[in-house]
Amino acid sequence: MNDHPPVPRSFDQVTPEWLTAVLRRTHPGIKVTSAKVDPTMGHKPNKARVHLAYDAAGEQAGLPPTLVVKGTFNGTTSRGRIIDFSNMAELVSYRDILPRLTVNVPRLLYQTWEAEPSEAVVLLFEDMATREPTYFPTAFNTLDYGQAARFLTAMARFHAESWNSPAFAPGGEWGPGTPAGENAARIRSDYFDILPRSEHWQTSVVSPRGAAMPRKLRDPDRMEAGWLRLVARLEAHAKVIVHGDEHLGNLFVEPDGTPGLYDFLARGEAWPLGLVRFLIPALDILDRRAWERALLAGYLADLRRFGVEPPGFEEAWLVYRASAICTLMIWLNNSSTWQPEATNTANAARAAAAVMDHDSFGLLGL
User: Fold this and answer.
1) In this structure, are residues 196 and 223 in contact, taking their beta carbons and an 8 Å threshold?
2) What is the pLDDT, as a whole number, of residue 224?
3) Mean pLDDT to the nearest integer, 260-280
4) Of the candidates 144, 130, 108, 152, which has an alpha carbon nearest to the alpha carbon of residue 255?
5) Which of 81, 133, 200, 263 makes the best surface tag, with the fewest CB within 10 Å?
6) Model pLDDT for residues 296-327, shown as the tens digit of each residue
7) CATH 3.30.200 in the chain, residues?
8) Residue 343 has pLDDT above 50, yes or no
9) Which regions of the chain carry the CATH code 3.90.1200?
10) Residues 226-261: pLDDT tens digits?
11) What is the residue-averaged pLDDT of the chain?
């Protein structure tokens, strides 16, 4: 069992034989006797629950009756550079980054990838339903103050553990040229840096969510200039590992209230980006206006408690407000293949309100 079995490229290839080969890597001698794959979970057709039965050795090993398989699952045809990147970035997140941090995530049982005939990734996770989570937020089920504060504490812990880490430096395990370093480099080069000039921007600003935006928030020249100025300003702030896709759909709460996160696109970025991408979509607009100063102060206090020295509140508040343009850029342009259009619209509206409330472009001199 030194070699990985081929990556399944459709859900019907998630067979008892494939699962047996995978699970024998950690449980030698077991056999999966049957496997039934449910219809896909969520908006993107890349994840499904699998019901498994085992031989006596598998039963004795206590292997679970259900698991969740996630992967590329589009045959041998690429669905585009960004989707290929996100699949690989998630694998790298769980393989190379999250084991080094204290964060509550689904347990990964297996992962691998193939480069040919097209890039394909597969990950096998515990089924989070077995933890009986009490809360899976949605775009229309925003967080209350206590929930948001608990998630910020969880984020502050792993931000503190990676705060300006030497692992980001050349030669470090998350440095340039490593898979983790490529996560950060490619999300900049293939997404953020080119988004205002992309064809997708032009179609997004005439969509219903874009048409509802104030004219100045739809201006690609202004967004491009604001993004470049924000990137320059963020150079003065600590780099941390961020979740990378911070929004309500990637959160869960345990029965005891413990927060958890999944669907990571983890990478090194300046800490304010992780914060604005989380808080702005996660709170109702009126709640954000009432709570965000206190929540930011709590996050900074948590960072100190976890052993790092963050910026003072006024400096942090300034860069947090300027960074809101990142959240707007994402949700104004997020494809309906990634999230339902209603989710994109709700989050774009929250981001637009934050940018206007904070005069984010004005803080960047625009």
Assistant:
1) yes
2) 97
3) 96
4) 130
5) 81
6) 999 999 999 999 999 999 999 999 999 999 99
7) 11-126
8) yes
9) 132-363
10) 999 999 999 999 999 999 999 998 999 999 989 999
11) 93
| CATH number of the structural domain 132-363 | 3.90.1200
Phi, psi of 224 (to 5 degrees): -60, -45
Give the tokens for residue 242.
């961020």
Contact 264, 244 (CB under 8 A): yes
Q: Which residue has the tokens 């049982």?
A: 109
Q: In residues, how long is the chain?
A: 366
Residue 145: per-residue pLDDT: 97
CATH number attached to the domain at 11-126: 3.30.200
Residue 3 above 90 pLDDT? no
Can you give the pLDDT at residue 1?
38
Q: Which of 301, 279, 271 is nearest to 357 (CA)?
A: 279
Report phi then psi at 12, rounded to 5: -75, -10
- Between CA 271 and CA 237 the distance in angstroms is 7
pTM of the model: 0.94
Return the pLDDT at 357.
Answer: 98
List pLDDT tens digits, range 193-213: 999 998 889 999 999 999 999
